[in-house]
Specification:
Structural class: alpha+beta
Number of strands: 16
Strand content: 25-35%
Shape: globular
Largest sheet: 12 strands, mixed
Order of helices and strands: HHEHHEEEEEEEHHEHHEHEEEEEE
Number of helices: 9
Helix content: 25-40%
Distance between the termini: 12 Å
Length: 318
Amino acid sequence: MYGHHVVDDFNALIQKQMKDETYLNAVKSAVDGIKQAQHFFLGSYQELIQPLGSFVEEQKETQVFLGSSSKYVRLPYKSCWFEFEDKSFTVGETMSVPKRGLLVDELDEDLLRVVIVNWVEQWKRWVLSPQNYLVLVGRTFGDDLERIGKKVAAAAVNRGASPAVVSLLMRSNTYPMSASDKQLPWDTALECRADDQRDLYVLNAALLLLNCKNIETEDNQPPPKLNRKRSKNGKQELFIYKTLVLRLPSNRKVPHGNDNVNDNDKTRIHLCRGHFKIFTEDAPLFGRYTGLYWWDPHVRGDKKKGLVVKDYVVKTDP
Protein backbone atom coordinates (compact mmCIF):
# COMPACT_ATOMS: atom_id res chain seq x y z
CA MET A 1 0.00 0.00 0.00
CA TYR A 2 2.49 2.65 1.18
CA GLY A 3 5.86 0.89 1.18
CA HIS A 4 6.80 1.86 -2.38
CA HIS A 5 5.95 5.52 -1.63
CA VAL A 6 8.18 5.46 1.47
CA VAL A 7 11.09 4.05 -0.56
CA ASP A 8 10.63 6.73 -3.25
CA ASP A 9 10.56 9.55 -0.64
CA PHE A 10 13.57 8.19 1.23
CA ASN A 11 15.59 7.72 -1.97
CA ALA A 12 14.91 11.37 -2.82
CA LEU A 13 16.16 12.35 0.64
CA ILE A 14 19.30 10.23 0.25
CA GLN A 15 20.15 12.10 -2.97
CA LYS A 16 20.33 15.34 -0.98
CA GLN A 17 23.27 14.00 1.09
CA MET A 18 22.20 15.28 4.51
CA LYS A 19 24.83 16.46 6.97
CA ASP A 20 23.37 14.33 9.76
CA GLU A 21 25.27 11.15 8.93
CA THR A 22 23.51 9.02 11.57
CA TYR A 23 20.07 10.00 10.25
CA LEU A 24 21.15 9.49 6.64
CA ASN A 25 22.43 6.00 7.43
CA ALA A 26 19.19 5.25 9.27
CA VAL A 27 17.20 6.31 6.19
CA LYS A 28 19.35 4.10 3.95
CA SER A 29 18.92 1.19 6.34
CA ALA A 30 15.14 1.74 6.35
CA VAL A 31 15.03 1.62 2.54
CA ASP A 32 16.91 -1.67 2.49
CA GLY A 33 14.71 -3.04 5.27
CA ILE A 34 11.42 -2.07 3.62
CA LYS A 35 12.51 -3.72 0.36
CA GLN A 36 13.31 -6.99 2.15
CA ALA A 37 10.40 -7.04 4.61
CA GLN A 38 6.95 -8.59 4.45
CA HIS A 39 4.43 -5.74 4.15
CA PHE A 40 1.21 -5.59 6.16
CA PHE A 41 -1.56 -2.98 5.79
CA LEU A 42 -3.58 -2.78 9.02
CA GLY A 43 -6.23 -0.20 8.10
CA SER A 44 -7.45 2.30 10.68
CA TYR A 45 -5.94 2.49 14.18
CA GLN A 46 -9.34 3.05 15.78
CA GLU A 47 -11.05 0.23 13.90
CA LEU A 48 -8.22 -2.17 14.65
CA ILE A 49 -7.87 -1.38 18.35
CA GLN A 50 -11.47 -0.75 19.47
CA PRO A 51 -12.65 -4.35 18.97
CA LEU A 52 -9.71 -5.59 21.03
CA GLY A 53 -11.05 -4.09 24.25
CA SER A 54 -9.79 -6.69 26.72
CA PHE A 55 -6.38 -6.71 25.05
CA VAL A 56 -6.06 -2.90 25.26
CA GLU A 57 -7.21 -2.87 28.88
CA GLU A 58 -4.57 -5.49 29.73
CA GLN A 59 -1.88 -3.36 28.08
CA LYS A 60 -2.99 -0.27 30.01
CA GLU A 61 -2.61 -2.21 33.24
CA THR A 62 0.87 -3.41 32.28
CA GLN A 63 2.79 -2.33 29.16
CA VAL A 64 2.79 -3.31 25.51
CA PHE A 65 4.27 -6.75 24.84
CA LEU A 66 3.85 -7.73 28.48
CA GLY A 67 1.06 -9.58 30.27
CA SER A 68 -0.50 -12.99 29.77
CA SER A 69 -0.87 -12.66 25.99
CA SER A 70 2.80 -11.84 25.38
CA LYS A 71 3.73 -15.51 24.91
CA TYR A 72 1.72 -15.44 21.67
CA VAL A 73 3.54 -12.37 20.32
CA ARG A 74 6.09 -13.41 17.71
CA LEU A 75 7.15 -11.80 14.46
CA PRO A 76 5.99 -14.09 11.61
CA TYR A 77 9.04 -13.21 9.49
CA LYS A 78 12.51 -11.93 10.38
CA SER A 79 11.61 -8.50 9.01
CA CYS A 80 8.13 -6.98 8.63
CA TRP A 81 6.72 -3.63 7.51
CA PHE A 82 3.36 -2.66 9.08
CA GLU A 83 1.22 0.28 7.90
CA PHE A 84 -1.89 1.85 9.38
CA GLU A 85 -3.93 5.04 9.32
CA ASP A 86 -4.77 7.35 12.21
CA LYS A 87 -6.33 10.61 11.05
CA SER A 88 -6.77 11.80 14.63
CA PHE A 89 -3.05 11.77 15.42
CA THR A 90 -1.04 15.01 15.47
CA VAL A 91 2.44 16.05 16.57
CA GLY A 92 2.29 19.25 18.56
CA GLU A 93 -0.60 21.53 17.65
CA THR A 94 -0.33 21.65 13.86
CA MET A 95 1.54 18.68 12.36
CA SER A 96 -0.82 15.95 11.15
CA VAL A 97 0.55 12.43 10.61
CA PRO A 98 -2.44 10.37 9.38
CA LYS A 99 -0.34 7.53 7.97
CA ARG A 100 2.20 5.53 9.95
CA GLY A 101 4.68 2.79 9.17
CA LEU A 102 6.61 0.38 11.40
CA LEU A 103 9.67 -1.52 10.21
CA VAL A 104 10.19 -4.38 12.67
CA ASP A 105 13.22 -6.68 12.78
CA GLU A 106 13.64 -9.76 14.93
CA LEU A 107 16.97 -9.52 16.76
CA ASP A 108 16.21 -12.57 18.88
CA GLU A 109 13.14 -14.71 19.51
CA ASP A 110 11.85 -12.21 22.08
CA LEU A 111 13.77 -9.07 21.06
CA LEU A 112 12.54 -6.65 18.40
CA ARG A 113 13.81 -3.43 16.81
CA VAL A 114 11.01 -1.08 15.78
CA VAL A 115 11.63 1.81 13.37
CA ILE A 116 8.78 4.33 13.04
CA VAL A 117 8.01 6.24 9.83
CA ASN A 118 5.40 9.01 9.55
CA TRP A 119 3.60 10.54 6.58
CA VAL A 120 3.46 14.27 7.41
CA GLU A 121 0.43 15.79 5.73
CA GLN A 122 1.82 19.33 5.66
CA TRP A 123 5.01 18.16 3.94
CA LYS A 124 3.30 15.55 1.72
CA ARG A 125 6.10 13.06 2.29
CA TRP A 126 7.27 10.22 4.53
CA VAL A 127 9.68 11.05 7.36
CA LEU A 128 11.76 8.78 9.58
CA SER A 129 11.09 9.27 13.29
CA PRO A 130 14.05 10.70 15.28
CA GLN A 131 14.07 7.63 17.51
CA ASN A 132 13.34 3.93 17.19
CA TYR A 133 12.84 1.26 19.83
CA LEU A 134 14.37 -1.89 21.25
CA VAL A 135 11.46 -4.01 22.53
CA LEU A 136 11.78 -6.99 24.86
CA VAL A 137 8.72 -9.26 24.65
CA GLY A 138 7.33 -10.88 27.79
CA ARG A 139 9.43 -9.26 30.51
CA THR A 140 11.17 -6.04 31.51
CA PHE A 141 14.84 -5.23 31.03
CA GLY A 142 15.24 -5.54 34.79
CA ASP A 143 13.91 -9.10 34.59
CA ASP A 144 16.62 -9.98 32.05
CA LEU A 145 19.63 -8.15 33.41
CA GLU A 146 22.40 -10.51 32.35
CA ARG A 147 21.38 -10.87 28.70
CA ILE A 148 20.09 -7.39 27.85
CA GLY A 149 19.25 -5.28 30.93
CA LYS A 150 22.83 -4.32 31.84
CA LYS A 151 23.56 -3.37 28.23
CA VAL A 152 20.49 -1.14 28.11
CA ALA A 153 21.46 0.50 31.41
CA ALA A 154 25.01 1.13 30.19
CA ALA A 155 23.77 2.63 26.92
CA ALA A 156 21.39 4.92 28.81
CA VAL A 157 24.14 6.10 31.16
CA ASN A 158 26.40 6.82 28.18
CA ARG A 159 23.59 9.05 26.86
CA GLY A 160 23.49 10.96 30.15
CA ALA A 161 20.58 9.20 31.82
CA SER A 162 20.11 9.90 35.52
CA PRO A 163 19.73 7.04 38.04
CA ALA A 164 15.98 7.76 38.09
CA VAL A 165 15.75 7.36 34.29
CA VAL A 166 17.81 4.15 34.37
CA SER A 167 15.52 2.77 37.08
CA LEU A 168 12.48 3.68 34.96
CA LEU A 169 13.97 1.91 31.94
CA MET A 170 14.71 -1.23 33.95
CA ARG A 171 11.02 -1.39 34.89
CA SER A 172 10.03 -1.15 31.23
CA ASN A 173 10.59 -3.24 28.10
CA THR A 174 10.98 -0.50 25.46
CA TYR A 175 14.25 1.41 25.06
CA PRO A 176 14.30 4.53 22.82
CA MET A 177 17.30 4.68 20.47
CA SER A 178 18.26 7.85 18.63
CA ALA A 179 18.24 7.88 14.82
CA SER A 180 20.10 11.19 14.62
CA ASP A 181 23.46 12.75 15.45
CA LYS A 182 21.53 15.03 17.82
CA GLN A 183 20.50 12.94 20.83
CA LEU A 184 17.13 13.88 22.29
CA PRO A 185 17.23 14.94 25.95
CA TRP A 186 15.91 12.14 28.13
CA ASP A 187 12.75 13.99 29.15
CA THR A 188 11.94 14.54 25.46
CA ALA A 189 12.85 10.97 24.54
CA LEU A 190 10.51 9.59 27.19
CA GLU A 191 7.71 11.93 26.08
CA CYS A 192 8.15 10.68 22.51
CA ARG A 193 8.07 7.11 23.77
CA ALA A 194 4.73 7.81 25.45
CA ASP A 195 3.37 9.30 22.20
CA ASP A 196 4.56 6.26 20.25
CA GLN A 197 2.65 3.82 22.49
CA ARG A 198 -0.23 3.77 20.01
CA ASP A 199 2.15 2.49 17.34
CA LEU A 200 3.28 -0.26 19.69
CA TYR A 201 -0.34 -1.06 20.61
CA VAL A 202 -1.04 -1.61 16.91
CA LEU A 203 2.05 -3.76 16.47
CA ASN A 204 1.20 -5.84 19.56
CA ALA A 205 -2.37 -6.42 18.31
CA ALA A 206 -1.21 -7.23 14.77
CA LEU A 207 1.29 -9.82 15.99
CA LEU A 208 -1.37 -11.47 18.13
CA LEU A 209 -3.64 -11.73 15.08
CA LEU A 210 -0.86 -13.10 12.91
CA ASN A 211 -0.10 -15.76 15.51
CA CYS A 212 -3.68 -16.98 15.76
CA LYS A 213 -3.77 -20.60 14.62
CA ASN A 214 -6.88 -20.08 12.48
CA ILE A 215 -5.55 -17.11 10.48
CA GLU A 216 -3.67 -17.72 7.23
CA THR A 217 -2.41 -15.67 4.27
CA GLU A 218 -3.02 -15.76 0.53
CA ASP A 219 -0.77 -14.15 -2.10
CA ASN A 220 -2.02 -11.39 -4.42
CA GLN A 221 0.06 -10.23 -7.38
CA PRO A 222 0.45 -6.52 -8.31
CA PRO A 223 -0.46 -5.48 -11.88
CA PRO A 224 2.59 -6.35 -14.07
CA LYS A 225 1.87 -3.44 -16.42
CA LEU A 226 1.90 -0.92 -13.56
CA ASN A 227 5.15 -2.32 -12.17
CA ARG A 228 6.79 -2.15 -15.59
CA LYS A 229 5.77 1.49 -15.85
CA ARG A 230 7.08 2.32 -12.37
CA SER A 231 10.35 0.51 -13.06
CA LYS A 232 10.78 2.38 -16.33
CA ASN A 233 10.27 5.67 -14.48
CA GLY A 234 12.86 4.77 -11.84
CA LYS A 235 10.31 4.25 -9.08
CA GLN A 236 9.98 1.44 -6.57
CA GLU A 237 7.77 -1.36 -7.89
CA LEU A 238 4.68 -2.39 -5.96
CA PHE A 239 5.06 -5.48 -3.81
CA ILE A 240 3.16 -8.74 -3.86
CA TYR A 241 0.76 -8.65 -0.94
CA LYS A 242 -0.81 -11.38 1.15
CA THR A 243 -4.43 -11.28 2.32
CA LEU A 244 -5.24 -12.61 5.77
CA VAL A 245 -8.07 -15.13 5.86
CA LEU A 246 -9.88 -16.81 8.73
CA ARG A 247 -10.28 -20.59 8.65
CA LEU A 248 -13.64 -21.57 10.07
CA PRO A 249 -13.38 -23.88 13.09
CA SER A 250 -14.46 -27.44 12.38
CA ASN A 251 -14.47 -30.58 14.48
CA ARG A 252 -13.57 -32.54 11.33
CA LYS A 253 -10.57 -30.58 10.07
CA VAL A 254 -7.33 -29.25 11.56
CA PRO A 255 -7.90 -25.46 11.83
CA HIS A 256 -4.33 -24.45 10.94
CA GLY A 257 -1.53 -25.81 8.81
CA ASN A 258 -3.60 -28.35 6.85
CA ASP A 259 -3.42 -27.89 3.07
CA ASN A 260 -6.29 -30.33 2.53
CA VAL A 261 -8.91 -28.08 4.12
CA ASN A 262 -11.62 -27.04 1.65
CA ASP A 263 -11.61 -23.41 0.49
CA ASN A 264 -15.25 -23.16 1.55
CA ASP A 265 -14.05 -23.32 5.15
CA LYS A 266 -12.32 -19.94 4.80
CA THR A 267 -13.77 -16.44 5.10
CA ARG A 268 -12.61 -12.91 5.65
CA ILE A 269 -12.42 -11.76 9.26
CA HIS A 270 -14.77 -9.18 10.77
CA LEU A 271 -12.76 -7.71 13.64
CA CYS A 272 -15.68 -5.60 14.85
CA ARG A 273 -17.48 -8.74 16.04
CA GLY A 274 -14.67 -11.05 17.13
CA HIS A 275 -12.25 -11.50 19.98
CA PHE A 276 -9.21 -13.54 20.98
CA LYS A 277 -9.67 -16.96 22.58
CA ILE A 278 -6.97 -19.07 24.19
CA PHE A 279 -7.54 -22.82 24.28
CA THR A 280 -5.43 -24.80 26.75
CA GLU A 281 -4.69 -28.47 27.25
CA ASP A 282 -7.25 -28.45 30.07
CA ALA A 283 -9.92 -27.00 27.78
CA PRO A 284 -8.89 -27.59 24.12
CA LEU A 285 -10.92 -26.62 21.07
CA PHE A 286 -13.01 -29.63 19.98
CA GLY A 287 -11.09 -31.62 22.56
CA ARG A 288 -7.94 -31.49 20.38
CA TYR A 289 -6.56 -28.03 19.54
CA THR A 290 -4.71 -25.58 21.79
CA GLY A 291 -3.29 -22.07 21.30
CA LEU A 292 -4.49 -18.59 20.35
CA TYR A 293 -7.46 -18.20 17.99
CA TRP A 294 -9.40 -15.27 16.55
CA TRP A 295 -13.00 -16.05 17.38
CA ASP A 296 -15.83 -14.61 15.27
CA PRO A 297 -19.21 -16.08 16.25
CA HIS A 298 -21.02 -14.51 13.28
CA VAL A 299 -18.62 -15.15 10.38
CA ARG A 300 -19.93 -14.31 6.94
CA GLY A 301 -18.64 -12.63 3.81
CA ASP A 302 -16.48 -13.23 0.76
CA LYS A 303 -13.64 -15.65 1.43
CA LYS A 304 -11.47 -13.98 -1.25
CA LYS A 305 -11.37 -10.54 0.37
CA GLY A 306 -9.24 -11.17 3.40
CA LEU A 307 -9.22 -9.61 6.87
CA VAL A 308 -11.69 -6.72 7.22
CA VAL A 309 -11.75 -4.09 9.94
CA LYS A 310 -15.09 -2.58 8.90
CA ASP A 311 -14.10 -1.17 5.49
CA TYR A 312 -10.39 -2.00 5.71
CA VAL A 313 -8.54 -5.07 4.47
CA VAL A 314 -5.37 -6.22 6.20
CA LYS A 315 -2.85 -7.17 3.50
CA THR A 316 0.81 -8.15 3.41
CA ASP A 317 3.52 -7.52 0.80
CA PRO A 318 6.87 -9.34 0.63
